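During the no-cost extension, the postdoctoral fellow (Dr. R.K.) reprocessed legacy sequence entries with the updated structure-token encoder. One reprocessed record is reproduced below for audit purposes.
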Amino acid sequence: MQRLLQVLFWSVISAAFIGPGTVTTAASSGAHFGYSLLWALLFSTFACLVLQEASARVTVVSGKNLGQAIRQQFHGGASGPLVMVLVLGAIVLGCAAYEAGNILGSVAGASLQTRLSPEILTLIIGLVSGLLLYFGTTKTVARILGVVVAFMGVMFLVTAFLIEPPVGELFKGTFLPTLPQGSSLLVLGLIGTTVVPYNLFLGSGIAAGQKLGELRFGLSVAIVLGGLISMGVLVAGTSVTDSFSFEALSGALSLRLGEWSALFFALGLFAAGLSSAITAPLAAAVTARSLFDKEKTNRWDHRSWRYRAVWLFVLFTGVFFGLTEVRPIPAIILAQALNGVLLPFVAIFLLLVANDRKLMGEGGMNRLSTNICMGLVVAVTIVLGVTKIMQAVTSALSLPKLDEITLFAVSTVATLILAVPIYRLAHARRR
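Re-encoded structure tokens follow.
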């Protein structure tokens, strides 16, 4: 029973990364490239697990969550307040900018099967999210989201199973990486929607008081199940033969499997949007608390006005743009740029902290195998981050879009330049 509760608790991470963005990207990948990009979801699940485990382990072993570790590292210097404000700004702005997408995604799922107006559905979703965040503790919210994720998983995985995909094609797409022409940005999108900065703060913030063994079990099972759900969405997306949309996928599933499959997809999409609509404000508030809360005070307790002000801002922003049906394009572009910087920054910081003998002790530090895995993941986050920054800059300045080869070349060079100093810093901390 305890292990089941651990899986439900840590399913909050899956709830956060399986949102409408993930559903759209995964289903689009299936629609355009069949099963050939399943390997990208396998890798993104692995990368998510590596970083989330390190983030939670830092909290359990050192007694300091990720935000506190960042605050301690930059304490006393002129850059300290600036770093904390930039980190918080990137997380809160990112959560707020994408919250509208979460809510509209949930509305899109509900609209496939109901005749309620989008405005009423938006208000209902916003109200449910707000009530749960207001009255529930972090642990209660996490476990409720675990149930939502389980429901979502049943909806998507049953649909994928009944499509009866060729087993050989599944194994080939999962374990033999290929890059079909024009698929590079979708691959980065699959990784980028799974490995997100605010999840690292969320996971670290809720890990306090956990036992490392139980934590690893619950976290591993929850994230692997989340990865399988994303793969199920990709498989479902292969049903679309024309241009992708939620309506097109729903129609294709109805023709292939019957009307019940369209209902399952609609319910799964609704659950994906609702779970992310709850976790985005929660993650923003947990991040703010981890950065600014002082030990042995209740100023950032989950009932405090400070904590509630953060998640209310994110939720209200999403509801506002959801009601107006206007995408906050400038905010999304800025959020992409800030998160493009933040993801590799946090990943590199995690790698350094996890190798800090003074903070983690001999038994808590990374082993060689863990460092190899984290090094690979950090390299990918740098590639992803540089790509997001360049895309945001070209969008903001209305410049022509850069081709995939240019994006990959520039981001790879940036990764190679940063590799040597990162290795030296990590090696020095282990002494």
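Residues 2-335 form a domain with the Amino acid/polyamine transporter I fold (CATH 1.20.1740.10). The radius of gyration is 21 Å. The remaining legacy entries will be reprocessed before the final report is submitted.
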